[in-house]
Write the structure tokens for this entry.
Amino acid sequence: MSSKTEFGTKLGLIAATVGSAIGLGNVWRFPAETQMNGGAAFLLLYILCVLALGIPVMLAEFSLGRGGRSDAVGVFRRLSPGKGWWIAGVFAVLASYLIICYYMVVAGWTLEYLFESIGGGLYDSLYSGEPAEALRGTFPAKMDDYVSSDLRPLMFTFIMIGVNIAVLLGGVKKGIENLSNVLMPVLFVILIAMCFVSLSLPDAGEGVAYFLDPDFSKITPRVVINALGQAFFSLSLGMGILITYSSYYPADTRLVRTSVIVSLLSLLVAVLMGLIIFPAVKSFGLDREPLEGATLVFVTLPEVFAQLPWPRLWSSLFFLLLLVAALTSTVSIAEVSVAMMQDRFKMSRRRAVLTVMLPLLVFSSACSLSFGSLSDMKIFGLTIFDLLDTFTTDILLPVVSIAVCIYMGWFAPKGLLTDELSNHGALHSRWTGPVLFIIRYIAPVMIALILIFNYI
Ligand code: PFF
């Protein structure tokens, strides 16, 4: 049973949790939000949301997972049997599963771009002797080709599903933990190298100034809500991931310390991404284009790379970085359903992994094809991909987070939070009081505002 499984080392459990937190949220959502919402003013708000609300809610999920020692549904059943709270767990599993369906497609694009960078296909005309300027304007068509043709993106999505299956079959320690131990250092090395390159570009200073110069006039209630949504998404809250991972934490893991390390590393990655992207786009005059998620990564940045010496090298490194970020996130989110299958339905690891992952061949295909032959199929005016994205991030994730806060704040067994934060009295924890106050009174109200604003 997965409740007996534990991560092998402290470093390993941090690498796995950080790996889950660092994903496309840091790489492409953060720069886009920062550009639209007042540069450093948004950064400050985001930091505030992570520290004041993200960490307490993360601690609520950690305490729930380690205290309940089961999957995202099982923790509620074990801690409060006979009550309906397990439904919150079902919502968490549902959210996580719907997210993998479309996230796997984006992971597939990342792999496709990595291939095209290494092979040079992305920059082909450079190699037939044309100047870099000639490539300008060609990337939207390339993206269209890579993303909207039916077969190619499907093939790469399937490869990513296969890689995820291989890692998950390895189990928590040998699969997920070992993978994270190797990939997290790789991610940081690439990030730092690219930061140096970007900061040494001619107009880097202006880009940094733009990123770090706060424009408080842009801050509206909507922007505050965006910062909060961004903080929660980038910390992997409300998806059942942290509940599941913390059920694998040994009894002596210091939860407060772990939550602070994970949050600060996730913040650091977002800031480093800003230091890579803003100087680069400024230096090549691309800063007036909106740094919107997918276009930023698949159009704007390739244009930047094309102007640099060794475009294939920088492009390959960047898409490898993105692939690492995506892979350590997809395995974490798939583990939520795998753990549930093992614990609820007493399946073997192998059976659980295959039961969870094989249907993705169909579901992720539908998401992938929604850029190609299914692009006309609209539900509530949205393609399948956009529908899943909107339904999960705008509705399910906030609902799960509110439920976790209310449960841990008011209904969980008495002393659960204190016991978990203090490792059953082994540590002196000053944080229980403030954390309890925030998850009781502040966080649910603030998260409810996200729901209301999204509705409006
Ligand atoms: N923190 C992750 C990110 O920023 O991308 C959230 C996440 C999304 C985790 C999707 C896992 C996942 F499959």
User: Anything to note?
Assistant: The longest helix spans residues 311-345. Residues 20-21, 23-26, 99-100, 103, 233-234, 236, 329-330, 332-333 surround 4-fluoro-L-phenylalanine (CB under 6 Å). The radius of gyration is 22 Å. DSSP finds 20 helices and no strands in the chain.
